[in-house]
């Protein structure tokens, strides 16, 4: 009898262990159990994620018996057209990685991604950095702001089409320590203010006119506007006045005295762009920085991985967020992390349970840490005190810019004050004409930006 | 009635004929008629490429592009102006360069084959790779600036690079488009020149015609069909080609090199999955109408010249 009990207990223990092995994160998906031996497919638009995901998949397969085939489809336009044609022919994979808080919602509202709100329980949602948790959830505000022909209008508020996967922030400055030293600047201390940053740029450019400037992929015109101006203006004006710049009421817009002042502060960097910055794409600007063609480079937290891939060791760079102006409302800039990519299960997937299990694993601390370490991309999963162990010290160090005073926190993911159908290329072009092209002065740029946003509000109506 | 009275043998011939042409007809029906029809229908709809249903909007897409949408129409008008400059400059410069080049090559006696190969080289290597190569040449520290500085023409060099200066960017792209088009045009002109009966030129010379008269009264009129073809190819490439603009400038700096074909592509693929495929299709059809009108105007003009 005792041996029978022992056998039952050992069987129960083995079953428990097997279940524990399958459910990695503690939250775990609800719904049908996934069978071992199943195979799922996943498409990602990021080449740098493919290898890391494949490594995570090997571990996942060893734990669960479910195999995962990862396919990278790049660049973005090819990824989009492949999804379009696969949707028409019914050949979508089980899991898609998409741009978070935008593309994932469009895909979901269009019927391509399944609503997984019932499968992602509270414990699972609690894993994520708070500002990223609801990136894949379509809320009523977004539905209300959408244009009348948007698929959001027919979707259900509260639907969750994806779970956040990678997170990060824009507006991170990377400085080449060797160049700073050569220019007589302190390679270990970031500038405390925008004015100090501009002065440092002046010094490094004077020391090395060709390779001492600031690189940024201004061929994609909106990056100067998004990555430098917006955090700078947010700190300068404070949240309320900053959001007012984009409003229907142009008396508080870019052409207002406050707005013009922020444009004036931004345009102080005009003499220090690296030569030809407007002809470089984002990756090309990063490569130029890695090759020593500029002393400073603006990117996001994700840029560290790309620089490392291009031969620039993370310990050779000093990182800091866009510094605030000393004359502004806030003397500190904190970057709220936003979900950059997310993972969704396709509505046509015949392996939904297995796909959810895979999502559960790659967003668990163990899975997310593994992918982050391999891809050098920050996860949306909060790794807490284990971050440095799981991701490595350089990547974990970037997370320090995510925390600080709430009033100083710039949340690039907050789009509630933009007009519906907001197109960032048009203001981006105006910013390029302000700096580096100098075709517009700050007052003219303010007027043009007000006209651009006025037109967007009008067409949204 | 004819089919009723067809003999069995005629029926067999008729069926055999159709069997031969059917693959081509079917292919055209699927790849041509269906896609053209579908594209035209899409221009009257709003769709993001994913939803099962299109939302019909009638002529709204056309109106939005031309005047109704204040955040769209001004950009389209600016792109149309840039496209017009490209459409006029590329065919004109191609003809002005390739005709004298072809005449020179035609008159060269030694190394003619080698020279033809050299001038045809840009065509062989043309495409995306050459656009990347040109980007390196046009950089601030690229070969073109280096060459200008080394021959004492440093004042002409562009410190920000040729593509970063709004006043040189579009014309630099036009120059590269012409560079790509000249080999084919030269080859066509060479073919045309070799088809001209030498006795006609000889007779004109005996009658006292000078080289200029021979050129304008004999050669240029006889080459008009070639010129028509070259100009049409140039207009077509200028209206539809967007690769060079996408790779080299992405419409920049500050929107100064945006053209309609690039705008069409951006509307289709770079609007964050917004339902802009209908707008993109409508712009494509507007480009088609512009191409037809330009072709007709051009054909009429050249007929008058002839």
Task: Please characterize this protein's 3D structure.
The complex is a heterodimer of chains A (461) and B (306). Chain A is an alpha/beta fold and 461 residues long. Chain A folds into 2 domains: 34-168 and 338-382, 3-Layer(aba) Sandwich (D-Maltodextrin-Binding Protein, domain 2), CATH 3.40.190; 170-335 and 406-460, Periplasmic binding protein-like II (D-Maltodextrin-Binding Protein, domain 2, 3-Layer(aba) Sandwich). Helix content of chain A is 43%, strand content 12%. Chain A contains 19 helices and 11 strands. In chain A, the strands form 3 sheets. A 5-stranded mixed beta sheet of chain A has the order 2-1-3-10-4, sandwiched between helices. A 4-stranded mixed beta sheet of chain A has the order 6-7-5-8. In chain A, strands 9-11 form a two-stranded parallel ribbon. In chain A, α2 links the parallel β1 and β2 (67-72). In chain A, α9 (222-237) packs across α11, α11 (257-266) packs across α19 and α18 (425-434) packs antiparallel against α19. The longest helix of chain A has 21 residues, at 2-22. The radius of gyration of chain A is 24 Å and the shape is globular. The N and C termini of chain A lie far apart (78 Å). Residues 1-25 of chain A have low confidence and may be disordered. With 306 residues, chain B is mainly alpha-helical. Chain B has a domain at 60-109 and 168-305: MetI-like fold (Orthogonal Bundle), CATH 1.10.3720. In chain B, 73% of the residues lie in helices and 1% in strands. Chain B has helices at 8-42, 60-68, 73-107, 112-124, 128-138, 143-150, 166-195, 198-206, 211-222, 224-240, 243-248, 260-269, 277-305; strands spanning 45-46, 55-56. In chain B, strands 1-2 form a two-stranded antiparallel ribbon. In chain B, α2 (60-68) packs across α3 (73-107), α3 (73-107) packs across α7 and α8 (198-206) packs antiparallel against α9 (211-222). The radius of gyration of chain B is 25 Å and the shape is globular. The model of chain B has no long low-confidence stretch (mean pLDDT 88). Chain A binds chain B through residues 76-77, 80-81, 83-84, 87, 99, 102-103, 106-107, 110-112, 147, 149-151, 210, 218-221, 275-279, 281, 421, 423, 425-426, 429-430, 432-433, 436-437, 439, 452, 454-456, 458-459, and chain B through 46, 48-52, 55, 57, 64, 69-72, 74-75, 135, 138-141, 159-161, 163-164, 166, 248-250, 252-255, 266, 269-275.
């Amino acid at each position: 009898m005792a041996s029978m009990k022992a056998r039952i207990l050992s069987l129960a223990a083995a079953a428990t262990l097997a279940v524990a092995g399958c459910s990695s994160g503690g939250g775990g998906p609800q719904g049908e159990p996934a069978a071992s031996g199943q195979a799922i497919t996943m498409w990602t638009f990021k080449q740098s994620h493919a290898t890391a995901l494949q490594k995570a998949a090997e571990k996942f397969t060893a734990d669960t018996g479910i195999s995962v085939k990862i396919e990278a489809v790049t660049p973005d336009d090819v990824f989009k057209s492949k999804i379009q044609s696969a949707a028409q022919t019914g050949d979508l994979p089980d899991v898609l990685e998409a741009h978070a808080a935008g593309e994932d919602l469009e895909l979901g509202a269009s019927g391509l991604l399944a609503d997984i709100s019932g499968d992602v329980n509270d414990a699972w949602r609690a894993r994520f950095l708070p500002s990223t948790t609801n990136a894949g959830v379509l809320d009523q505000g977004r539905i209300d702001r959408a244009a009348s022909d948007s698929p959001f209008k027919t979707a259900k508020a509260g639907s969750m089409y994806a779970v956040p996967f990678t997170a990060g922030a824009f507006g991170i400055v990377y400085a080449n320590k060797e160049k700073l030293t050569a220019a007589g600047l302190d390679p270990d201390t970031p500038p405390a203010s925008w004015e100090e940053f501009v002065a440092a740029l002046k010094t490094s450019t004077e020391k090395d006119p060709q390779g001492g400037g600031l690189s940024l992929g201004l061929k994609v015109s909106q990056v100067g506007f998004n990555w430098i101006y917006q955090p700078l203006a947010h700190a300068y004006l404070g949240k309320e006045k900053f959001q007012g710049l984009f409003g229907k009421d142009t008396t508080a817009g870019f052409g207002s005295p406050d707005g013009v002042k922020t444009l004036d502060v931004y345009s102080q960097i005009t003499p220090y762009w690296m030569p030809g910055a407007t002809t470089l794409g984002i990756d090309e600007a990063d490569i130029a920085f890695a090759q020593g063609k500029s002393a400073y480079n603006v990117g996001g937290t994700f840029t560290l991985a790309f620089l490392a891939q291009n031969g620039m060791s993370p310990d050779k760079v000093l990182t800091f967020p866009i510094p605030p102006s000393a004359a502004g409302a806030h003397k500190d800039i904190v970057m709220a992390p936003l979900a950059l990519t997310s993972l969704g299960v396709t509505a046509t997937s015949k392996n939904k349970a297995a796909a959810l299990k895979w999502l559960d694993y790659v967003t668990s601390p163990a899975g997310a840490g593994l992918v982050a370490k391999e891809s050098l991309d920050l996860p949306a999963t909060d790794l807490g005190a284990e971050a440095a162990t799981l991701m490595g010290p350089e990547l974990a160090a970037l997370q320090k810019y995510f925390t600080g005073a709430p009033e100083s926190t710039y949340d690039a993911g907050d789009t509630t004050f933009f007009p519906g159908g907001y197109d960032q290329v048009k203001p981006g072009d105006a910013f390029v004409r302000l700096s580096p092209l100098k075709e517009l002065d700050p007052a003219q740029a303010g007027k043009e930006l007000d006209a651009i946003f006025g037109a967007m509000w009008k067409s949204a109506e | 009635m004819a089919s009723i009275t067809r003999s069995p043998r005629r029926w067999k011939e008729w069926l055999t004929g159709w069997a031969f042409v059917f693959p081509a007809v079917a292919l055209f029906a699927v790849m041509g008629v269906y896609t053209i029809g579908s594209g035209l229908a899409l221009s009257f709809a709003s769709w993001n490429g994913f939803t099962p249903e299109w939302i019909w909007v009638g002529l709204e897409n056309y109106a939005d592009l031309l005047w109704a949408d204040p955040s769209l129409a001004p950009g389209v008008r600016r792109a149309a102006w840039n496209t017009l400059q490209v459409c006029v400059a590329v065919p004109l410069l191609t003809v002005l360069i390739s005709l004298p080049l072809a005449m020179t090559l035609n008159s060269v006696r030694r190394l003619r084959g080698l020279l033809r190969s050299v001038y045809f080289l840009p065509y062989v290597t043309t495409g995306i790779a050459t656009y990347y190569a040109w980007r390196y040449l046009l950089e601030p520290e690229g070969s073109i600036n280096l060459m200008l500085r080394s021959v004492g023409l440093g004042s002409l060099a562009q410190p920000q690079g040729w593509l970063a200066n709004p006043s040189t960017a579009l014309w630099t792209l036009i120059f590269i488009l012409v560079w790509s088009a000249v080999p084919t045009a030269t080859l066509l002109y060479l073919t045309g020149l070799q088809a001209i009966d030498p006795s006609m030129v000889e007779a004109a010379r005996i009658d006292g015609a000078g080289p200029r008269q021979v050129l304008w009264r004999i050669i240029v009129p006889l080459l008009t069909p070639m010129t028509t073809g070259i100009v049409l190819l140039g207009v077509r490439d200028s209206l539809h080609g967007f690769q060079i603009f996408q790779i080299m400038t992405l419409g920049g700096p500050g929107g100064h090199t945006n053209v309609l074909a690039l705008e069409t592509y951006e509307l289709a693929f770079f609007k964050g999955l917004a339902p802009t495929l209908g707008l993109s299709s409508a712009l494509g059809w507007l480009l088609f109408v512009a191409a037809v009108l330009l072709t007709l105007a051009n054909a009429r003009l050249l007929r008058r010249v002839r």
